[in-house]
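Structural biology now treats backbone shape like a language. To illustrate, our science desk offers a sequence and the tokens encoding its fold:
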Amino acid sequence: MSKNENLCPCGSGKTYAECCEPIIKGSVKAPTAEACMRARYSSYVKHEIDFIIKSCDDEEGLAEIDKKATEDWSRQSQWNGLKILRTEKGEKEGEEIVEFTADYTLHNMHELHHEISLFKKINDEWKYVAGNVIPETVKRVGAKVGRNDPCPCGSGKKYKQCCGR
């Protein structure tokens, strides 16, 4: 395995083993909201959906995500990188704001997910509470699928009779 393959997906420049993996596996707690956000991104890349659920604030109902759909999205996406744009204290004690972009490609569509997220420290653990998504332009990176073309999902059906409905 090359050195680059050992690097953490969050873009910190550290190895996965010394950066997000211990947070995701639960052996250490995220020391900051930014570290929690980085671990959440790495969880999508590494398909560690249990951490995504565990790192959400239960009181906000966020932990009730569809695990299977989230895992499918995680596995079907090509993860291109995370950029932390800013972090700052929240309005209340124990709150932090993390603004980031997560770059990924799904079904030949390139998306730059731009979000301003609120994190709270609950029982000495940082939790994702809410996010405000900033609209971005989505760009097609592959050829457009025609109505009568085979569906790119691999079903063997025409696109119009499958995912193109």
Q: What stands out?
A: The chain has a mean pLDDT of 88.
